[in-house]
Amino acid sequence: MKVTSALGTCLRQATRDAHHRLDSHSVLRPLVSSGLTSEDYLQALLALYSAQCRLEEAIARGLHHLQLDYPLQPRAPALTDDLTAMNQPLPIIDKTPMLTVCRPGQLIGLLYVLEGARLGSRVIARNVHRSLGDRVPSGYFSIAEEAESWSAFWPFAERHCPAAEQPAAMTAADAAFQLFLSGLDEYQAAASLGCA
Predict the structure, then answer these.
(1) Ramachandran assignment for 100, one of left (phi > 0), alpha (psi -120 to 50 degrees), beta (any other)
(2) Full-model pTM
(3) What fold is seen in the domain 6-190?
(4) pLDDT in 10s for each residue of the chain, 196 residues
(5) Phi then psi for 107, rounded to 5 degrees?
(6) Which SUPFAM superfamilies match (predicted)?
């Protein structure tokens, strides 16, 4: 689904740089490479875990706080299942809230990142299966409802994010990308010290 609304344009522009940094991060870049190894794949899953859990928790809290109904389909359980199937202990999640949702625009910004990532996972899932085979645990990247979630997100976003809320949405979306970038950097730094 191509998004051409003013809200879509604002969110894309506000997150363009952070999105590019995330896509080109050295921990994630192998996921779309023909040279993807099992170790690269595992490292990416471990590095994404904390941010994914924290983002979904913030969205769930925000939906509850704002009393809004949205068909949230969490991906963190699939990520947990993948890591468990690979006999990996789950990373410890920092419980300090980094993302807050007090207004609808903030919720829309966080959902934009969550649902956009789901949509982008299709490319990764294809490469994981091509490079590592169909038996590798890949539920996190292979969730089938990605297109439906993206399509459901936009009417919800347009309804709950009028022009006055767009600055809050842009700030929240950028904060969600920063959460993932920080998580990747922290994981990479710990791995280089032999702590991950």
Answers:
(1) beta
(2) 0.93
(3) Heme Oxygenase; Chain A (1.20.910)
(4) 456 589 999 999 999 999 999 999 999 999 999 999 999 999 999 999 999 999 999 999 999 999 999 999 999 999 999 999 999 999 988 877 779 999 999 999 999 999 999 888 888 999 999 999 989 999 999 875 555 788 889 999 999 999 999 999 999 999 999 999 999 999 999 887 766 6
(5) -60, -45
(6) Heme oxygenase-like (SSF48613)
